[in-house]
Design brief:
alpha/beta; Dna Ligase, domain 1; D-amino Acid Aminotransferase, Chain A, domain 1; Glucose Oxidase, domain 1; 5 domains; eight-stranded mixed sheet; eight-stranded parallel barrel; 36 helices; 34 strands; elongated; binds adenosine-5'-diphosphate; binds magnesium ion; Pyruvate_phosphate_dikinase
Length: 883
């Protein structure tokens, strides 16, 4: 088998497309060679050999040695040198290179092939003793560290000692004789640590380094990284062996890194850094301050260190040309590594550059305008999830950060405000026009109003799927959860951390994008929704097939969603309208009366309020579809809890508090998620559904009269399992519609449909579709009922499941395609069989998750619906799913 692929002198056995076989670095080195760019010759040992190595008890196939020898000889021929030969000394670097760049893999070893003998030859060959000994000391340190396992700190200590002794600050000031001495000390240290001298045989050095690369594939750091990034173990890594070129040959040599465009802003300008008389990672190691590549960047940075453009104009011009060639060739922003040896430029790496969300937008839009890529490609290049960062205020990157604690980045964006410890305080201060951050150990459904009133939420307990995190993301509010080092004493009104105490009213800032908690206010940057963002969105809208709606029940959310491009409401949760202060008493009155008459009396008070709610939403949506879900949660969620509240409701109803207490107990449920909720309420108390239907239809009439843009309300019956349930409730709704139409002398169009959120409904979807004019997949409940897991209780063990590899993904974050998805598929198919034009949508949180949106496209849903802040993400993800 062929295990080794050569490159050099304008030709290569591999190509950019061979990343699986040659790793990213090797494939791109080969490609650059074939493009005729100046690349030091070398060869790549394939990822397949890595697999062989692990399946054969960490050994190599017999033919490998010969292939490596041949390839090495070829490298020598091109370079006019020979490995291990003092007369024409060839030195190489050994570089690891997986398919995807992967921290945790073996670091690169440079100057391999040096020993006590060859170092003298190198000095003579280059007529530069200092250079030779500088290279040798680097080699000993790198090789000992990454191959022999001698901690690099030993060497740094020695170097620091010697610098102090010599009275110099910079490595570049150390002279040949002193490097020679330092090399002696390094070698002694290695022998002391290992009980063996530093290996002198170049062949032994080479095979040692190759083995170390393969071994590092299975080191703990690499394994962890692969697990976190879903990289299969079977991929393996490649090894690149390449002729050395030297950036440390004095003042006409240099090494550097650059991006073809600015990776933080996306601006089209070569951006990078270099160091004169340096090697390898010196630029990023922070030993000396690197210099700017271009004059323009130097001036912008206010640096007095000359640019590459100034000090090596020829090499610079060549570099500018090559950067352009590579960007045009790869049709993407490139991240480049180069070395200049005595004025001659060599390219050592190219790859697509990592960039911020903002830069990703800018480069994609500009490259499409330049004609380098198509609009479809531009849309495909943006990670939908990254848009989240752009929709919220963020901390000015140049701002000083006084970090007091770090939790989980639960919901993106940054927020500043006064600390409050209760939701009521949050609401009170908000009414006074103050900005607050709600700080709690954890949040519960009773904190919704406080969360609404806050700029951001900080909790000391709970993970990425805790109540605070989920609700905050839904509201589009920044949230840091699980900041465990904070101690919150809500009674005393204090929060303390590491000896600092914060009181209620003190200002803090949270950064929900990285989990930081900061002291005081910090300068912010406001989101920029025009320009590049708008361009990408416009292109995405041209490409996508599915509509994107929003989940919203307040006018503020509905308006925001419209501004983000929502094309209607896919889920209006009417119960959220029941919690408002002006109506909760009437709601409680309705629930607690034990007669239908009593309930109707209370419902009559609610009707005008509900009607006004819907009217608002209909006007904002101006003719777009609006799906309204009838009351869904179990009634006891609305019940008075404190004695004070009970007394208040009792007074309003004119009954004894004791009677109320008794009724409250009656309504208690052991398992509310599976209890008396959804359409079961409408079956037990049809008058509730009737009131809601009347409010909907009357609002539809009124808004049509006012705006001239009739809404077609979609009345949605939740938690249907039996078609008979839907039949019963629908009959009531239709009757109300008939009444309202007669009263108004005005026809209204409306649809009645159901949520599919119980497995039975999915399996019986053909029957259900006889009555339902639309299905909306409520995949939150469908996930709960399919798995038999309650979401509120699942956070703890689902994380354990993930860690133990039993599940890959939290099914509440990304839809479980095999199980829950199968039910969706079945229901969609059966529904269509009965009713060809049945409208299909999704309104669970999955509606804003890019992977789930891809699934929705596959199943052919008509729309997805998600929280307002996820609308742009869904628009983009739907476009990507459509191509
Ligand atoms: P990483 O994957 O960590 O970037 P590389 O294999 O790219 O590691 O090596 C790091 C640096 O080492 C390169 O950027 C380059 O400066 C230097 N280097 C690697 N190989 C050579 C070589 N053959 N000649 C000169 N410098 C090299
Ligand atoms: Mg590199
Ligand atoms: Mg539900």
């Amino acid at each position: 088998a062929k295990w080794v692929y050569s490159f050099g002198d304008g030709a290569a056995e591999g190509r950019a497309g061979d990343k699986n076989l040659l790793g990213g670095k090797g494939a791109n080195l080969a490609e650059m060679c074939s493009l005729g760019l100046p690349v030091p010759p070398g060869f790549t040992v394939t990822t397949e050999l890595c697999s062989y190595y692990y399946t054969h008890g960490q050994s190599y196939p017999p033919e490998l040695k010969g292939q490596v020898e041949d390839a090495l000889a070829k490298v020598g021929e091109i370079a006019g040198r020979r490995f291990g030969d003092k007369n024409k000394l060839l030195l190489v670097s050994v570089r690891s290179g997986a398919r995807a760049s992967m921290p945790g893999m073996m670091d690169t070893v440079l100057n391999l092939g040096l020993n006590d003998d060859t170092v003298e030859a190198l000095a003579q060959d280059a007529s530069d003793e200092r250079f030779a000994w500088d290279s040798y000391r680097r080699f000993i340190q790198m090789y000992s560290d990454v191959v022999l396992g001698v901690d690099h700190e030993h060497f740094e200590e020695i170097l620091e000692d010697q610098k102090a002794r010599l009275g110099v600050d910079l490595d570049t000031e150390i002279k040949a004789a002193d490097w020679k001495k330092i090399v002696g000390l390094y070698k002694a240290k290695v022998e002391e640590e290992l009980g063996q001298p530093f290996p002198q045989d170049p062949q032994e050095q080479l095979w040692g380094a190759i083995g170390a690369v393969f071994s590092s594939w299975m080191n703990a750091r690499a394994i962890t990284y692969r697990r976190l990034h879903d990289i299969p173990e079977s991929w393996g890594t490649a090894v690149n062996v390449q002729a050395m070129v030297f950036g440390n040959m004095g003042e006409t040599s240099a090494t550097g890194v650059a991006f073809t465009r600015n990776p933080s802003t996306g601006e089209k300008a070569l951006y990078g850094e270099f160091l004169v008389n340096a090697q390898g990672e010196d630029v990023v190691a922070g030993i000396r301050t690197p210099q700017n590549i271009t004059e323009e960047a130097r001036i912008a940075a206010g640096s007095d260190q000359p640019s590459l453009q100034k000090v090596m104009p020829d090499a610079f011009n060549e570099f500018v040309r090559i950067a352009d060639v590579l960007e045009q060739h790869y049709r993407d922003m490139q991240d480049l590594e180069f070395t200049i040896e005595r004025g001659k430029l060599w390219m050592l790496q190219t790859r697509s550059g990592k960039r911020t969300a903002k830069a990703a937008l800018k480069t994609a839009v500009e490259m499409a305008s330049e004609g380098l890529i198509t609009q479809e490609e531009a849309v495909a290049r943006i990670d939908p999830a990254s848009l989240d960062q752009l929709l919220h205020p963020t901390i000015d990157p140049s701002a000083e950060r006084n970090v007091v604690a770090v939790g989980l980045p639960a919901s993106p964006g940054a927020a500043t405000g006064e600390i409050v410890f209760t939701s009521d305080e949050a609401e009170d201060l908000k009414k006074q026009g103050r900005k607050v951050v709600l700080v709690r150990v954890e949040t519960s459904p009773e904190d919704i109003h406080g969360m609404h009133a806050s700029e951001g939420i900080l909790t000391t307990r709970g993970g990425m799927t805790s109540h605070a995190a989920v609700v905050a993301r839904g509201m589009g509010k920044p949230c840091v959860s699980g900041a465990g080092t904070l101690r919150v004493d809500a009674r005393a009104g204090t929060m303390s951390v590491m000896g600092q105490t914060f009181k209620k009213g003190d200002i803090i800032t949270i950064d929900g994008s990285n989990g930081q908690v900061l002291k005081g206010a910090v300068p912010m940057l406001q989101p920029e929704l025009s320009g590049d963002f708008a361009a990408i969105m416009e292109w995405a809208d041209k490409i996508r097939r599915m509509k994107v709606r929003t989940n919203a029940e307040t006018p503020a959310d509905a308006r925001m969603a419209r501004s983000f491009g929502a094309e209607g409401i896919g889920l209006c949760r009417t119960e959220h309208m029941f919690f408002d202060e002006d109506r909760i008493i009437a709601v409680r009155e309705m629930i607690l009366s034990d007669t239908e008459e009593g309930r109707r009396k209370a419902l009559a008070k609610l009707l005008p309020m509900q009607r006004a709610d819907f009217l608002d939403l209909f006007e904002i949506m101006a003719g777009l579809p609006v799906t309204i879900r009838l009351l869904d949660p179990p009634l006891h969620e609305f019940l008075p809890k404190t004695e004070e509240e009970i007394a208040e409701v009792a007074a309003a109803m004119g009954v004894e508090p004791d009677k109320l207490r008794h009724r409250t107990e009656e309504l208690h449920e052991f398992n509310p998620m599976l209890g008396h909720r959804g359409c079961r309420l409408a079956v037990s108390y049809p008058e509730i559904a009737e009131m809601q239907a009347r409010a909907i239809f009357e609002a539809a009439v009124e808004s049509a009269r006012k705006t001239g843009k009739p809404i077609v309300p979609e009345v949605m019956v939740p938690l249907v399992g039996l078609v008979a349930e839907l039949d019963y409730v629908k009959a009531r709704i239709d009757q109300v519609a008939k009444d309202v139409i007669a009263e108004a002398y005005m026809p209204i169009d409306y649809l009645v449909g159901t949520m599919i959120e119980l497995p039975r409904a999915a399996l019986q979807a053909d029957k259900v579709a006889e009555k339902a004019e639309f299905f909306s997949f409520g995949t939150n409940d469908l996930t709960q009922t399919t798995f038999g897991i309650s979401r509120d209780d699942a956070a703890g063990f689902l994380e354990t499941y993930r860690q133990k590899g039993i599940i890959e993904q939290d099914p509440f974050v990304s839809i479980d395609v095999d199980g829950v998805g199968e039910l969706v598929r079945i229901a969609a198919e059966k529904g269509r069989r009965t009713r060809g034009d049945i409208k299909l949508g999704i309104c669970g949180e999955h509606g804003g998750d890019p992977a789930s949106i891809r699934f929705c496209e596959e199943v052919g849903l008509d729309y997805v619906s998600c929280s307002p802040f996820r609308v742009p993400i869904a628009r983009l993800a739907a476009a990507q799913a459509a191509v």
